[in-house]
Amino acid sequence: MGALQKEEDDVNEGIQESLSASDLSGRQLRSRAHCRVKYTDGSKETRGDEPDDDQDSECSSDDRGNEVPSTTASTNVRKQTITAHARQWRKEDLPATLIDWDTAPPLFLQKHVTPTKCFERFFGDTVVEHIIRETIKIYANGKGGHSFKTDFVEVRAFFSIVLVCGYNSLPRRRMYWEQQDDCHNSAISKTMSRNRFELLMRYIHVADNNKLIAGDKFAKIKPLYNLLNERFVRFFPVQQHPSIDESRIPYYDKHSLKQCIRGKVIRIGCKQWVIATPLGHAPYLDLYQRASAAYDRKFGLGHSVAMGLVNQLPNGPHYHLYFDNFFTGLRLLKGLSDTGSAATGTVGSNRTEKCPTDLIGLKNAKRGSIHYRHDRHHGIVVCAWNDNSIVTLASNQDGVFPMAKESR
């Protein structure tokens, strides 16, 4: 062991002289370290074999506290991942399959309802009662407003004014109660006085500040979001072809999750993940919280968000989901196949797991040309199509053929 200790000291001194932390990249500093120990006993051979470059070596300690190699070396995680998702690419189309869809419209759509009644299905008595409880009993009393009272009618009138202000906007809130013809709104002024509206605006609350969820940057509105999501799913007019994408919420005040993305219709605001249907209904909303969001780092953010939203849909129907290239991946399509859901989406060429589509040759081909491959093992087809640029799509349900021409 003396010879071994001397050899380790020499190596450590050489490493310290040649390298420092500033010479390594961030990825190298965060990567797993490999411990390679070679034991010698005089003229005897090495007792511990040096692990391969692609294999991790686990070390334990003996009775003296010295590190010794474990009898079971850890397996190569990277090689296991590749083996588990081995692809069998063939130049053939995905076999055509039909999805049974016999879901009847929900009962609340089988009879005529007014827009007000439809709105109250989502923003009903339970939601208003929650707001009154958080506003009066918790927030107003804690701020010294012991005499403050409100009821269902007044809270509904308050939110009616807020909705009107959303599409009939003025520079300042108080202008709705002014007498000038160009800004006065009689519907608002007759519903509630200006001072009463501002008092409600001061005390209105949807969460208990003493019971906020630690680490949740939207904790002050999360209870309301949960109540609404519960009703969005309950009154979901089930459709076979929902899509998953991001949505922007305009917001101009101070918040750590506010973003400015040029080129978007709503440049400044917060982002949320949403399931949307062709009818415009959103069965579930999930606020985006950047690094604080819990997701499976093995699969990435897009995969985790998509699977999480799909799990919120009502069980039973076989959905056919659509994504853009932020979400689509071959492992996502396989995971949805296991749950009985079909999916189609654009996919980045670097996420096709070495699918042998000739992108260079396709780029030089005439417009409308395609290259496609079918993974027999997982039932996934990847198709590269030459449009203005190369568009790559993947699906576990839709095949390449039949094809037809479509005018723009």
UniProtKB/TrEMBL annotation:
Region ranges (Disordered): 1-84
Biased composition (Acidic residues): 50-60
Composition bias type Polar residues, residue spans: 15-25, 68-83
Pfam families per UniProt: DDE_Tnp_1_7
Single annotated GO MF: sequence-specific DNA binding
Chain coiled-coil ranges: none
Span of domain PiggyBac transposable element-derived protein: 114-397
InterPro entries xref list: PGBD, PiggyBac_TE-derived
Composition-biased stretches (Basic and acidic residues): 38-49
Protein name: PiggyBac transposable element-derived protein 3
Originating species: Elysia marginata
